[in-house]
């Protein structure tokens, strides 16, 4: 004989569902709710059943009651589900939890339950607590806004540096010139991109410069050349140009970044000094003026680095001794005196994190290192506790007299942005189960 199925207690089954569900009559009178809904609403079933939604939860009317009412109207009118916009609904805490209200954000959908004739019999409300996701999204937006502002400030600095800056793609085609370059040459951007920039060179320098540039593009070696560039007034001025390639994680060149400075006076001065070598007094005076100009330029760049919105420092020699640290960098270690000390000596926690090895490699090979969202564990105060900190940074070798002299560090801290993004990814991967878990 077939075994008769056991009777199903549907009310008990409904209440045990792992969702925040509220069953209402068409007029919003509460008929029943799940145990999960009871838990997140902080109100017993007995206090809610038999009352309308707005009577059982009066704070709804103070916050987003009209939005909920309009959603009910949509279900009653069109007999189709309706998802409300994100609403804020603060929960009233019981006295044993301190009383008052707790800020919460919710995503709710109302579903029509129809009878056999297609008439609306019930409205089922499914509610998800998205407070953590909402706050994480707001924080991520704030962090992104701060990063955008930092990038805008950096771009502003690059546009206004007393340097002619340009970029090129991996094939060597120039694709950007800053306002200083455009103002110097007096020609618009669209007349200098690609290889058109060569038209502004002195005819005697053009072939030599083209060959030098093509050689660097082909080999990936740093580019350095002096040539005469036509100024907007028609005068040819000697400039010194340097460029380095930006490489991907696999070592492929993705772009070139170059800068040029006007050295016309310095070059003329050197020629005059060579020609007037017998006039020692004049030689000494002119050399002093050249030194003063170089010193003034150094002070200008030092002032720029001190005010830059990025963390900048200069590490001198193979032992990586701090020679210069701007305020943004010093804020990482307010309890440490960096200048004059080596990285290994003053930041010992990075020894086992591979940082010294990276610095050694950049210093020895000259290959620039680009770190993206690289995590370091640093002691940010005098507590002795290491904290996870994320950076986007560049280690770039600089040379003097043809030999390696040190490393320039240029970095942005992106800890808050990375944490917000990771939290968003975790919540997105967890899906509705995470929301139910947070609600419980």
Characteristic key phrases:
six-stranded antiparallel sheet, alpha+beta, Beta-Lactamase
Quick take:
The protein is α+β, with helices and mostly antiparallel strands and 440 residues long. The chain has helices at residues 10-16, 35-41, 45-48, 53-56, 59-63, 65-78, 131-160, 179-185, 203-219, 264-275, 280-307, 327-330, 343-346, 355-365, 415-430, 432-439; strands at residues 20-24, 30-33, 82-83, 87-88, 91-92, 101-102, 105-114, 120-129, 164-169, 174-177, 223-230, 236-247, 253-262, 311-316, 321-325, 369-378, 387-400, 403-413. It is elongated.
Q: Could you explain how this protein is built, in words?
A:
The two termini are 45 Å apart. Among the domains are: 10-129, PAS domain (Beta-Lactamase, 2-Layer Sandwich); 310-440, 2-Layer Sandwich (Beta-Lactamase), CATH 3.30.450.20. A hairpin with a 4-residue loop joins strand 9 (164-169) and strand 10 (174-177). The mean pLDDT is 85. It has helices spanning 10-16, 35-41, 45-48, 53-56, 59-63, 65-78, 131-160, 179-185, 203-219, 264-275, 280-307, 327-330, 343-346, 355-365, 415-430, 432-439, and strands spanning 20-24, 30-33, 82-83, 87-88, 91-92, 101-102, 105-114, 120-129, 164-169, 174-177, 223-230, 236-247, 253-262, 311-316, 321-325, 369-378, 387-400, 403-413. The chain is of the alpha+beta class. The longest helix has 30 residues, at 131-160.
